[in-house]
Amino acid sequence: MKKIWLLGFGFFSISLGWSLYNGFVPFFLDNYLTSTALIGFLMTIDNYFALFLQPYIGNRSDRTSTRFGRRMPYLLIGIPLAAIFYALIPFHNSLVTLIIFMVCMNLSMAIFRSPTIALMPDITPESKRTKANGVINFMGGCGGILAFSVGAYLFDIEESLPFLVVSAIFFVALWVIYIHIKENRDGIPFTISTTTPKINYKKELTTPTVFLLAAIFFWFMAIQGMEALFTLYGVNELGLSKGASAFSLAFFSLSFVLAAIPCGLLGAKFGKKKMIIIGIIGLFLVFFLLNWIESVVSLRSLLLVGGMFWACININSYPLIVSMGSEHSFGTRTGLYYLVSSLAAIISPPTLGLFIDLFGFGILFNATAVSMLFALTCMLKVKHDETTFGKLPLTL
Fold first, then answer.
1. What is the DSSP string of 161-222?
2. What is the C-alpha separation between 234 and 134, in angstroms, rounded?
3. pLDDT tier, 392 (very low <50, low <70, confident <90, very high otherwise)
4. Cystine design at 260: which of 66, 73, 138, 212 (Cβ 3.0–4.6 Å)?
């Protein structure tokens, strides 16, 4: 578990970076654009690249063999590049340079995101993965809290300051992981196949896996859209300042952090699927009730509750999808997980932005609630025996 806590620094930096990106980059775009739909689209255009890169790199990392391990080379390349372009974002001087920095940063993130996530099952036995996922998401949640609290404070002082701080944290996280985690020493034994990848999708994409991926898509449709447009919602619908609107999301991240480890333990005891279903139902109710709030206190209280239910979903979903494959498919399944979430990130913000252009900001939480209902429908169709592991081997 010591290694998992150290690996958590990688998740910490990823979560910190994405939370700050989603919270403040829309304000940069808002300086050039008047259409919320177009802002939503530009917040996701980079994901078109990640959509193809992350599954490919995840699969390639399954087959990589170096003296650094099979995941670490991707971290050593991707993290420094991401740090550089992340620091450049607030120094744009036009819409074109802003988009270039956004795309380059996200391409760099795509290089190391899947390998970083796949490190967790690499060094953790299946029976302990929900607990481990709780720990690393606890670290990731801490990153979200800092992004929306300290990041909001720094943003009010100087808009470039939080981006520069996050860039420095990227380098620190890479140093911590590189020094303390040695894949060839800490990883669970495996056999690397160096032949050309030939995935048997008929065996890999079984009905339970497809329904699980569909559920993941719909709950990320809700979350990605909400996070990308919430700060604009707070300013335009509730009359909050930019800093106060971003700070409100810290309550969502705070409760996620507090619930991360308990949700991992509960998932190990009662089953990952059960915890996910509880989280979906709870988050649906939270999104539905957010349509009726009239005060900042009510808003932040509901976001506090919502973060707990999001932890039920997020902590248990990744361990569930990797448990439905073999140890040779961790990187591939990680790539599929982020393929689906990236697809949701592409579709959700511009779609919700279009709805907002047509019906006003009040439609935001109605749409996210409906998306959670679709996720629940798909999740109820997932049939999987959690007492076994590796029943669905990847044919290579």
1. HHHHHHHHHHHHHHHHHHHH--HHHHSPP-----SPP---HHHHS-HHHHHHHHHHHHHHHH
2. 29
3. very low
4. 138
Report the CATH number of the 2-379 domain.
1.20.1250.20
Beta strands in 41-170 (DSSP E): none
Helices and strands per DSSP (H, E), number in the chain: 16, 0
Rounded CA-CA distance 132/377 in Å is 28
Q: What is the largest CA-CA distance in the chain?
A: 59
Give the CA distances from residue 280 to residues 7, 287, 370, in Å, rounded to whole numbers and listed in that order.
Answer: 28, 11, 11
Residue among 312, 328, 337 nearest 133 (CA): 312
| Domain ranges (residues) in the chain | 2-379
Q: Kindly report, residue by residue over 310-362, the tens digit of the pLDDT.
A: 999 988 988 888 777 665 666 677 778 878 887 888 888 888 888 888 888 88
Alpha-carbon distance of 346 to 353, in angstroms, equals: 12
Assign 387 to helix, strand or coil: coil
pTM confidence score: 0.70
CB atoms within 10 A of CB 237: 17
